[in-house]
Specification:
The structure is a single chain. 5% of the residues lie in helices and 26% in strands. By secondary structure, the protein is mainly beta. The chain has a single domain, classed as Jelly Rolls. A five-stranded antiparallel sheet has the order 3-5-14-10-11, with no helix packed on it. A hairpin with a 7-residue loop joins strand 8 and strand 9. It is globular.
């Protein structure tokens, strides 16, 4: 949905937006910037970890382990596996700077950013859940520019770090403007299928996603 239309709805609904978000149909929806539903899950070889806890394990805020430890509150997609999530509230709108953060369980060995443990994933967004546009992702070599799964996660439910603040939350940020997309409700993460390059992994490990610009108020 174009941002101008979203702002017009905001002006019409006025104070209602203090506690809610404008949904695509013009109604006020609960203000939830996280994933609220797993639309589909297509696991690849090596998947399995965390699948018994689907869908709850990937809904809501991240459970980051910090720079030196990856969270176990994740689901492994497996090599080449993919998952599609629906964002709550109004979905994601294009605002200033990053609009979406994807949280994996990457970490820095010994706390050294020069020694990252990363399992790259390709991120795509969609307004209708059918037509997806992918962010460019160079998964061939570090620093895996444009991919998810390369930055540790610092936000967790009990540490007071805002998961929707890309300057402190960790994870990997994405800007809808880079794709020329004004609005999205669905997010797809696909393991980059590096396979033999990472023989001891089970692919991308998804913790959570958050819309930085989800609610207008």
């Amino acid at each position: 949905m174009p941002r101008s239309r979203l702002h017009l709805q905001a002006a019409t609904l006025g104070a209602a937006l203090v506690t809610g978000c404008v949904a695509a149909d013009g109604e006020v929806a609960p203000c939830d910037p996280f994933a609220v539903r797993v639309v589909s899950f297509a696991p690849g070889p090596g998947a399995g970890f965390g699948t018994a806890s689907l869908p709850e394990i990937v809904l809501g805020p991240p459970s980051g382990g910090g720079a030196e430890r990856g969270s176990t509150d994740v689901v492994s997609l497996g090599v080449g596996g993919a998952i599609v999530l629906e964002i709550g509230g109004a979905g994601i709108v294009d605002g200033p700077g990053p609009d979406l953060i994807v949280f994996e369980n990457a970490f820095y060995a010994g706390g050294d950013p020069a020694r990252p443990f990363a399992e790259p994933g390709v991120v795509a967004v969609s307004a209708d859940g059918t037509t997806f546009v992918e962010f460019p992702c160079d998964a061939t070599a570090p620093p895996y520019e444009g991919c998810a799964g390369r930055t540790p996660v610092y936000a967790a439910p009990d540490n007071g770090i805002d998961p929707a603040d890309p300057t402190v939350a960790g994870g990997d940020s994405f800007d809808l403007a880079d794709l020329g997309v004004p609005f999205a409700r669905f997010v797809r993460i696909r393991d980059a299928a590096l396979g033999p390059a990472f023989p001891d992994t089970a692919g991308f490990d998804l913790d959570a996603v958050v819309a930085v610009h989800a609610c207008e108020g």
